[in-house]
Design goal:
Elements lengths: L17 H4 L2 H16 L24 E3 L14 H5 L5 E7 L7 E9 L8 H5 L5 E3 L14 E2 L1 H11 L6 H18 L3
Antiparallel strand pairs: 1-4, 2-3, 3-5
């Protein structure tokens, strides 16, 4: 399309008001925020003796885990959507034909390079079977680069550590549905 086409409608920017032209309102707003933080009460957590408590650990994006299904198998179906959605390209999956009849593939290798990960949660959102989730574990350290590459066994062990405090999404949704059906059966609102 050419710049002089009749289909293009040019929009002029509205002129700035005198308050918008001066930086005084923005300056005052910044000073107000700074002063508010200066006089607000401070919260100090003596880590590692004290653990920080999150208001809602379900929405915190910490260490990854691979979820297990009802039979204790890895829930991942090796669809590669998490690796495709990852902006840091830190997920590496090698798939093989599944020995179970309920899925076509499963991951033989599932690695996450935690040093490259930006903990954005895109892998969790992309997963169609809720196999990968981020937990509220935040103390992540290692002595070498190799320790910071989480393989399938390490990711499954994170699941075993956190499944009681933070149940997987599919279990939470199932429990909510069961509560709703039991409430409707008893006639409660």
């Amino acid at each position: 399309m050419k710049p002089d086409s009749s289909e293009i409608r040019w929009v002029d920017e509205s002129p700035l008001t005198p308050a918008e032209r001066s930086y005084l309102p923005l300056f005052i707003e910044g000073l107000t925020t700074t002063f508010r933080h200066l006089v607000s009460p401070k919260i100090t957590v003596q880590f590692p003796e004290e653990r920080h408590e999150f208001p809602d650990p379900i929405i915190y994006r910490g260490v990854h885990r691979l979820n297990r299904d009802e039979q204790g198998r890895v829930k991942c179906v090796a669809c590669f959507l998490c690796a495709t959605a990852c902006p840091a390209h830190c997920i590496d999956i090698v798939a093989a034909p599944s020995p179970w009849p309920d899925r076509e593939k499963y991951p033989v290798v599932f690695n996450i390079d935690m040093l490259r990960c930006i903990f954005c949660g895109m892998c969790e959102e992309a997963c169609p079977v809720d196999a990968i989730e981020l937990t509220s574990l935040y103390d992540l350290s290692g002595k070498s680069r190799d320790e910071m590459i989480f393989d399938k066994e390490k990711l499954l062990s994170v699941y075993d550590q956190t499944k009681d405090l933070e149940p997987p999404r599919w279990m939470r949704e199932r429990d909510v549905l069961e509560d709703q059906t039991s409430d409707s059966a008893t006639g409660e609102t």
